[in-house]
Amino acid sequence: MTSTPNRTPKRAGARREAFAAAGFLASSYALLAVFVLVPLVAAFVVSLQQTDGFGAGEFVGAANYARLVEDPLFWRALVNTLLFTALVTPLSMLFGLIAAVLLNSALPARPLWRSLVILPMAVSGVATGLIGILVFDQNSGVLNNLIGFLGLPAIDWQSSPGPAFASIVIATVWWRTGLNMLIYLAGLQGLGPDLYEAARLDGANAFQRFRNVTVPLLGPTSFFLLVLNVIYSFQVFDLVFVLTGGGPGGATSVLVTYAYETGFVTRDQGYAASIGMVLFLFALTFAAAQWRASRTKDLVE
C-alpha cells in the first residue's frame, strides 16, 4: 500500500512566503497609494468643480472639459507640448546614443569625457533654466555676444517666437543627453563581442555594424528611453518657466505652464485640474500604446 505524500508543510511554506512577500510590498503599495493614487483621484474630483482653491467648490460636472474644446490657449499649449516632445525626444536620444558609442570605445581620457556629458544631470531644471538665461539672453547673453563677435546680427531669443522655442529645445536636449547616454552606455556594455566579431569577419564596416548590430540589440533600451523621454517632455515645466515663462505671447507655453498659470495666477483651479487630467491621459495613452507595440513585436519574434 503506497502512502500519499504529505503536502501540508509545502502549502504552509508557500503561504508563509506569500505573506512575507506581501509584507515587503505593502510599504511600496502604501507609498504609491498615498503619493500617486490619492492625489490623482483628488485632482479628478477637483476637475469636476468650479473652485479657486479656497473653500468648497461648486460641482459643474464635465463643464471644465467642455471649456477645453473651445479654449484656443489650451490648443496652442497642446501643440507646443507635442512639438516640444517631437523635437526633444529624438534629438536627446540620438545624441545620447552617439555619445554612448563614442565613450564606449577606447578614447583617450574617456572617464573625463563621460563625466562632462553626465554633468548636466546633476543640475536641476531651475538651475538649467538660469544657465540658459546666461547663454540665450538677447541683450547680454553669451551666444549673442559670440554672434556679434563674428559680425552676424543678434538673435531675439526672448522676443521672437521661433528663437524662444528653439532656446528651450536646445537647453533641454543639452540637459537630457547625459541621462540617455548613461542608459545607452549601460546597454552597450551588456552586449557581447561575438556578434561584432562575426559582422567584422563578414566584411561589415563600422557604420554597418552600428546599424545592423548595435541599434537592433539596443531596442529594449531605446524603448525604455522613448517612454521615459516622452513622459518627461509632456511634464516639462521648470526649465520653460524659468527660461521663457511661456512667452513671448504664449509661443513657448506648454500644458503644465498653462495649467500653472490657470491654477495659481487666475485661481481657476478646477479648470487647471482638468488640464492636468488631459495631460495624464496623453502620457498614459502613449505609454500603453508603446508597451502594446513592444509586446506585440516580442510575440511576433
UniProtKB/TrEMBL annotation:
Bilayer topology annotation: Multi-pass membrane protein
UniProt signal peptide: none
Family the entry assigns: Belongs to the binding-protein-dependent transport system permease family.
Protein name: Sugar ABC transporter permease
Broad class of the protein's primary localization: membrane
Keywords for the protein's UniProt record, in alphabetical order: Cell membrane, Membrane, Transmembrane, Transmembrane helix, Transport
Residue ranges the record marks as coiled coil: none
Membrane-spanning parts: 21-46, 82-103, 115-136, 213-232, 239-259, 271-289
